[in-house]
Amino acid sequence: MLIISWFVINRSFTKYTILAVLLTYFFMSIVPVKTIVTDPILASIVGGVLHGASVGITLNSDFSTGGLDIIGILVRKKSGRSIGSIFIIFNCCIQFIAGFLYGWQYAFYSALAVFISGKTVDFVNTKQKKVQIMLVTEHSEELIPMLQHY
Q1: CA-based nearest residue to 121, from 94, 78, 88
Q2: CA 113 to chain CA centroid, nearest Å
Q3: Which residues of the chain have pLDDT under 50?
């Protein structure tokens, strides 16, 4: 994924993504694991929101957390779909396979987390939002060259 990112997306994006992956590995190895909630549905919701917010923030900052983020960006360029919906589609396919192999109960909890994470990515990631304005003027001949210049 990083090689594809290097050549297709952006070299700066790839460098920061590598740094983010290394820092994530480092901090995950030193921060102690503490169970906050034991209810799997609540854990899916909280985990989905936290994951989606972190991915959305990194995408806003022009880098990613690696993996499916890079695929999501590439598919978004071709399809125009939101990155969050692309994440949901890809991850739910993975959850289906995991459900078949390891049991459906945990796959459904994971699918809930994936859905919430994807929606949170779309909410936080403002770079992918499209904006449209409508200008009403009697001076269109003067305005058109100015807009085309910028």
Answers
A1: 88
A2: 13
A3: none
